Amino acid sequence: MEADNRTGNVFHCHLTGIDETWVYALQVINKDENKALTTSEKLLIDPYAKSFNRHLVWNQDLYQDNSPFFIAKSHLTLAEFDWQNTSKPNIKNSDTILYETHVKGFTQQLNSIHPELRGTYLGLAEPEVIDYLKQLGVTSVQLMPVFHFMSEPRLEHLELTNYWGYNPVNFFAPDPRYAVSDAVTEFKTLVREFHKNDIEVILDVVFNHTAEADENGPLISFKGLANFDFYLNTEGDYKKSFANYTGCGNTVNADNDYALKMIMDSLRYWLTDMQVDGFRFDLAATLGRNGERFNQGCALFRAMKQDPIICRAKLIAEPWDIGPQGYQLGNFPNYWLECNDKYRDGLKQFWRGDKGLVAETASRILGSRDIFRKGKRSQITSVNYIAYHDGYTLHDLVSYEQKHNLANLEDNRDGHGANYSCNYGVEGPTTDQDIIDKREQQKRNLMATLLFSQGIPHLLAGDERSRTQGGNNNAYCQDNPISWLNWQMSDLQNKFYKFTQYCIQLRKQYPVLTHCLLPDDDYHYSAIHHHVYWIRPDGETKQVDDWHDHDNQCLALVMADDDQKYKMLLLLNASDEDSVYQIPKSSKKTLLIDTELDLLSPIIKTEDSYKQKANSLSLWQLDY
């Protein structure tokens, strides 16, 4: 059927006499300079398709032979779905605890659910999985990409796969590889069951590039339909070429009307028809580009802000790409949240024992106000994290000093070089109890700091149970047990899980840990204000010279309510020496947690001073 009608640059037709069992692809007829018509031999994916008959797998022979069997076909209709009167949880940013996971990897090794459901949308919706998330205490699950994607030809040649899924071929359809039969219905089931249990669903979305790669990459969809309208291009000496600000061969031109409309349509579709709660935007700086330059007031960001549906969603930026001026942390519009890599790197270095970092660490704990300015942005803007999907897991961070990525078949050249990790004496697994104890304590320090900092904490799935990737800090192509969650826990792993669970409970118990409202910050109006000050070991307020002491590795933060019922005291000692702190005067001193002690319940203390052991942290409630 030819789309022989045209309105502007859009060709269209109306089809009759077909039923819902049909599947389809597109084919393009080009008109050359002499107005001769030529038909492309490549079948193309409809960019607006909502469902596919299978996932797309690269096949060199089928592609070169222009075989119609290469391309995945689109369904014409979607099944009706019963949402059972569920509604979105609408969790406040200040109450949000993000939990990043992969649809397949989370349940692939969960033997207690039916084999057919492992690694699927329905597997993630199983009651046992949801109970686990609720008991841990997370509020929002951030799913790694579920857009229909294709592994790169290079990986297929190496007999590897793009496990993470950051290579989309379509912005609307959930990938069929995570489905038992109907990907759309099963994804909606996942969202519905999460919402029934007050858990949000956040999608990691890839609008910055597609699987079509550079000029020499495969012709799958957008290239055959809009090419240099959809993709950002640069003018060379002889011809246009694709701008590559993503490292993936092409860059979606979100400043173009066609691409901008498609992104907006996709966002609204996932928020309304699929009922998700928000998005984490991969390489979000790309979406803010007007040509080469990043612009906070770009057309896409303005369109999102005024849209009555999109503006209510959680919008999380990965605030960089590899293009010119690609690092834009702190420069997104104020209604966005931003992944804060300065928090990640600063806290890693502080607890590793690097010196000269107390001032920066203090800033990170109180919401990175050097980046997200008072009165301009909320400190809840900062999405704090220690581990993400790219990089070491928390356990590997304290177990490896060198990346071990040989399984990726890139001669260990890939992955981050600056990991700020430490193995504490032995690379990888060990039976040395002293090293094991040191690693466990450092994990407790990092996890507790993350959960007691201002901003939105982001946990990587499995970190609460000491998941390891064997030192691989870039497991993007490892669709195997390297990446999958191991549901078998040792006593030591279970102990750390209980610790993480307890820290989350403490965060939820004390509002000042989730949102500290300061009198000199007028971004949020509130009748309640908190007061904070930093003290020295002698109990006196820190002075300017104290902040500039390069050898100081200790911090003590006091946070108090206006109603003067209690104060919170956070003590951090990243040095190798014990430090004795005078505890501020109070009618009752309650030690809530100390990472050096086997303590998961409060203890009343009567002493006026406290010895904070080396490489440890404690949190207190001080009643008046």
From TrEMBL:
Domain Glycosyl hydrolase family 13 catalytic: 100-507
SMART domains on file: Aamy
Highest taxon, organism lineage: Bacteria
Signal peptide interval: none
Gene3D superfamilies named among the record's database cross-references: Glycosidases (3.20.20.80), Golgi alpha-mannosidase II (2.60.40.1180), Immunoglobulins (2.60.40.10)
Keywords assigned by UniProt, alphabetized: Glycosidase, Hydrolase
Family to which this protein belongs: Belongs to the glycosyl hydrolase 13 family.
PANTHER family xrefs: GLYCOGEN DEBRANCHING ENZYME (PTHR43002)
Descriptive protein name: Glycogen debranching protein GlgX
Organism whose genome encodes this protein: Psychrosphaera aquimarina
Lineage per the UniProt record: Bacteria, Pseudomonadati, Pseudomonadota, Gammaproteobacteria, Alteromonadales
